[in-house]
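Lab channel / #folding
Pinned by the channel admin:
"Please post every new chain as: sequence first, then the structure tokens as a reply. Keep commentary short and put observations after the output so the thread stays searchable."

First post following the new format, from NK:
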Amino acid sequence: MTTSDSPAADGDTKATTNGRAGPLTDLRVVEMGQLLAGPFCGQLLADFGAEVIKIEPPGAGDPMRQWGREKPHSKSLWFPVVGRNKKSITLNLREADGQQLARDLIAKSDILVENFRPGTLERWGLGYETLSALNPGLVMVRVSGFGQSGPYAKRAGFGAIGEAMGGLRYVMGDADRPPSRAGISIGDELAATYAALGAMMAIHHRARTGRGQIVDSAIYEAVLAMMESLVTEYDQADFIRPRTGAILPNVAPSNVYPTSDGEVLIAANQDTVFARLANAMDRPDLAEDERYKTHSARGAHQAELDDLIAAWSRTLTSDDVLALMESNGVPAGLIYRAPEMLADPHFRARQAIIDAPNHDYGTLKMQNVVPRLTETPGAVHASAPHLGEHNETVYRDLLGLSRERLAALNEAGII
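Reply from TO:
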């Protein structure tokens, strides 16, 4: 946690906690990232109360303000989520005056998040050596495609490339088709999640030592970290995991099964759970059949077991199958889209989806903060700000610039 002599523990902190809630309200974060990898890290920190000041180029702002397939009234529906709970200031980091203002702001902050190509901040006089000399407790979070070192460090590296090189793309999809992709930017978001985790580790270390450090989160490594035993299997058994579509080989039964009016996902791959599924099917004998009695046996006979379950499930409605699974303690569920999420009573009871206040739409439905903390929960107090909405608050109230100086900087295109 921020100590009494750390930058964001001075007298201006309490004045800036307007509406923020969570365990991180004593932390100030400067977000220099754009698009998704850096900003999603900033969103996670802001969700739990950190004061996140997002720096954006004057005039244009973060390109995420324009991204997204659906744009009612020419407004992005993606940026209000990734920009939520943040403050927005404009600043031209390519100009000397802008770089100095950035240094002044970072000197009063706890964490800097950036996702420029490695070497960019150093060219702007904003490298870690420079910034840590001004603020020894600074935690600098650097998200990039390939990390801050190594022969690929300075390559351009979007999330899709990290997903491919980290191993995820090869195992996604059906075996008879080229590799597929997730319908979300999973590589960027994994790197951002690890970056936020690393930031909290570094802040914990700073609480003991007073010293900051660099958190280096590479997209390809964040994806690689999720690949379970993929590398070890090749190392020890020369096995390369193939694409297997909707199933995991040798994990059975766990698949999408047809019903008379749709389909249901059933996951009963543990021995005791499979026995309960067999009872629900009025086939308790299956649990004693040598072909299906153990995890390994079911894996060896996966296809025939799936066919057997499908022949049973297609004689029932989805609701009937779900009811039987629930009464027998077998994990099962429908494959949800947004309409099903919004209609589900469990989602409503836990407020998994909330109405967030928004300048342009009044409110916008979006996912709530996770995980849930019992004593210091996070919250969404605002969706994304307008470009430069907090220029005066930050530059005047925090950095002490006069109105005249702000006007001059604006005229010169610095802010």
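NK: The chain is about 35% helix and 15% strand.
TO: also worth noting, The longest strand covers residues 51-56.
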